[in-house]
Amino acid sequence: MPDILRFDNFRLDLQDDEGRRYNLLDDISFTLPEGKALGIVGESGCGKSITSLAVMRLLPAAARVTGGSVSLKGMDLMSKTPKEMGDIRGRDVAMVFQDPMTCLNPVLTIGLQIGEAIRRHNPQMAEPELKAATLELLHKVGIPNPEKRMKNYPHQFSGGMRQRTMIAMAIACSPALLIADEATTALDVTIQAQVLDLMVRLKEGGSLMFITHNLGIVAEVCDEVTVMYAGQIVEAGTVEEVFLHPAHPYTKGLLLALPTLRSKGNTLYNIPGVVPTVRNFTPGCRYAPRCDYKLPVCSERKPARCVLNDRHHAACYLYEEVMA
Amino acid sequence: MTDNGVMLGVRGLTKHFNISNAWFSKPLLLHAVDDLNFDLRRGQTLGVVGESGSGKSTLARLLLKLIPATAGTVTYKGRDILPLKERQSGEIRRDMQMIFQDPYASLDPRVRVGDAIAEPLREHRLFKTQKEVKEHVARMLERVGLQREMVTRFPHEFSGGQHQRINIARALAMNPRLIICDEAVSALDVSVQAQVLNLFAQLKEEFNLTYVFISHDLSVVKFVSDEIIVMYLGEVMEHASSRQLFERTAHPYTRALISAIPNPDPTVRKQRILLEGDIPGAVNLPKGCRFQSRCFMAREDCRDAHPELRELEPGHFVRCHYAQPGIGEA
User: Fold this and answer.
1) Is the dihedral of CA A17, A21, A26, A28 positive or negative?
2) What pLDDT shows up at residue A104?
3) What gap in Å lies between CA A315 and CA A306, rounded to an integer?
4) At what angle do helices B160-173 and B190-207 cross, to 10 degrees?
5) B29: pLDDT strictly greater than 50
6) What is the pLDDT of residues A191-204, one digit of tens each?
7) Comparing C-alpha atoms, which of A167, A173, A240 is closest to residue A200?
8) Predicted confidence (pLDDT) per residue in B32-50, tens digit
9) What residue ranges do the domains of chain A occupy?
10) Contact at 8 Å (CB) between A262 and B246?
11) How far apart are CA A89 and CA A293, in angstroms?
12) What are residue A170's phi and psi, to 5 degrees?
């Protein structure tokens, strides 16, 4: 199966106002095979969103790419001109963000905004066709009464319907890859279930990348998962492998810290401390200061990626002997 | 004692907001909370769950007398607190504390953390000297896992989890009996959420606290609660012990909520119950059951007859004509 998306040793620094540089993404490598759903998990500040923004080439002004490559359908994204990127966004890759209210223009109707997304890649499309396509999209994402609803403004929509609108705009030109960045986080659980169901159903042959802090969502909708901590990939593999046999102490901690309907007793496992800010990243394995299994070597050298089996790998010295 | 261990007794508590915006039109009522009843015993935790718009936060505000009730009574240690004047409410204000969702918005960015915690102590004149106040504030900071040197810092120097610890320290400083947590861990990351939930559990033991724990997250509520109320459009749909609610789920709404929680165990590929549509507005409520427009079990009479809350088995209340324990299970 060809890879739709491929990160190779991608490195990114953030530069502050005084010109100091801090490394944020440290050798990010992963692939997303065509037709699969990949989940990227981690807490806030772990670099998940910046990774997805790199695919869209929507990085903040302070970001400096210092090495590696990101390729989408074999195209090297970092070498594209802004104009070429404009053609790629929407047609080859599209993104749904967390907060639908800040993504929709409050003074334009829903129909107009969806139409705009279609027209960007089909400039020759005539008005009646455009309207038909808009209606079909609204229908596809399950908005009742599309004929009437397309004349509404965003404030007349509920949170769930706005997120459906964002999905309609994202799939308007059938992109090969759809990225959802915490797309259901702001929604109620019953609405979240509807939206997740919708995204999985609309995926059809396309590929999905889910950025989320919710491990439950990854377990339910993704095929593969990559766990990030402070800008490093700590563990990756198929969902079954990683969730049933977590290897990295961070992944184990995250799974144990989650209250589930099955948790017993009255104390949850908790990882001491918090995710550091980019200025306070430590050398070596960045998780070491919070790790229960810390070895002296952990804060000196970054652990290599240890292959546990063909569907699972982790970056941790605990598994070095497996390699040897 | 006359209150036989009941800390908080709520009877027929109702809050309607008039949201009509014309002067002479008929009042347009939003039913935020309708006819709520429960008893909360000392040392117990009552969990309140429901989606946005179900009336959870209105309930918190009613219990704390932050907004006036339309009808009903709230008794605290056997005493009806709703008719009390603000001047007479001092003791209750001390005993009942609240922790809010947004850890950033609940601290004044220009007030040092120590002063933020000390302010209510000074207001209620709990200590005679400033020295005693300072010592108490420092002790509280240590109790929630921060350092006493942090009193001189400003809120922006803290992370989200630390903010929530400061808010807990501030509530705890008043030596309260009852703490109302309104989505107190919802804005926190998983690892920090676990730290704060554990802290709540320790403090409960240590200070014999009683909690009302409001959250949209059923797994968090299950973890902390002894008893749980499930609300929908201002009404209690199901009220049971935490165990009964999960093991003998009776209401279709509760069943749908439970099935909607994404499960981190990939071996469980359960049948999800997808509810149609959104929670409707709490104005112009239907004549029958408030949940019928989204219910997967609704029948003809659900549209006409409004179900009463009935006791299905001892201590297990449900508002549904067709409820039975273990409903909708695959």
Assistant:
1) positive
2) 92
3) 6
4) 10
5) yes
6) 889 889 888 888 77
7) A167
8) 999 999 999 999 999 999 9
9) 3-81+213-258+267-323
10) no
11) 43
12) -70, -40
User: Quick one: closest CA in B to A254, which residue?
Assistant: B191
Rounded Cα distance between A27 and A9, Å, is 4
Integer angstrom CA distances of residue B295 from A200, B33, B299 = 23, 20, 9
The helix (H) or strand (E) run that includes residue B244 is: helix B242-247
pLDDT tens by residue, B114-123: 999 999 999 8
3-state secondary structure chain A: CCEEEEEEEEEEEEECCCCCEEEEEEEEEEEEECCCEEEEECCCCCCHHHHHHHHHCCCCCCEEEEEEEEEECCEEHHHCCHHHHHHHECCCEEEECCCHHHHCCCCCCHHHHHHHHHHHHCCCCCHHHHHHHHHHHHHHCCCCCHHHHCCCCHHHCCHHHHHHHHHHHHCCCCCCEEEEECCCCCCCHHHHHHHHHHHHHHHCCCEEEEEECCHHHHHHHCCEEEEEECCEEEEEEEHHHHHHCCCCHHHHHHHHHCCCCCCCCCCCCCCCCCCCCHHHCCCCCCCHHHCCCCCHHHHCCCCCEEEEECCEEEECHHHHHHHC
Q: Which two tokens stand for residue A189?
A: 């659980």
Signed CA dihedral, B68, B69, B72, B73: sign only: negative
Best CATH choice for the domain A3-81+213-258+267-323 from the list 3.90.226.10, 3.40.50.300, 3.40.50.980, 3.30.70.380: 3.40.50.300
Answer whether A266 sits within 8 Å of B161, measured CB to CB. Answer: no
The alpha carbon of B56 is separated from its chain's Cα centroid by a whole number of angstroms, namely 6
Q: Do A274 and B192 touch (CB under 8 A)?
A: yes
Record the tokens describing residue B83, joined without a space.
Answer: 């008719």
**Does B130 contact chain A (CB < 8 Å)?**
no
Place of tokens 């200061």: A289
Assess A280–B contact: CB distance below 8 Å, yes or no.
no
pLDDT band at B59 (very low <50, low <70, confident <90, very high): very high
Q: Is B328 on the interface with A (CB under 8 A)?
A: no
Complex-level ipTM: 0.83
Q: Is B17 helix (H, G, I), strand (E, B) or coil?
A: strand
**pLDDT at residue B5, as a whole number:** 86
> Residue A173: how many CB atoms within 10 A of its CB?
17
Chain A residues in contact with B257 by the CB 8 A cut-off are 189-190
- Least CA distance to A162: which residue of chain B? B278
Q: Which two tokens stand for residue B304?
A: 């006409």
Mean of per-residue pLDDT scores for chain A: 91
pLDDT of residue A320: 80
Q: Report pLDDT digits (tens) over B315-324.
A: 999 999 999 8
Please check whether residue A293 touches B, CB under 8 A: no
* Burial class for B130, CB neighbours closer than 10 Å (0-12, 13-18, 19+): exposed
Give the global pTM: 0.87
What pLDDT score does A207 carry? 94
Q: What is the pLDDT of residue B1?
A: 44
Look up residue A232 and give its amino acid. Q
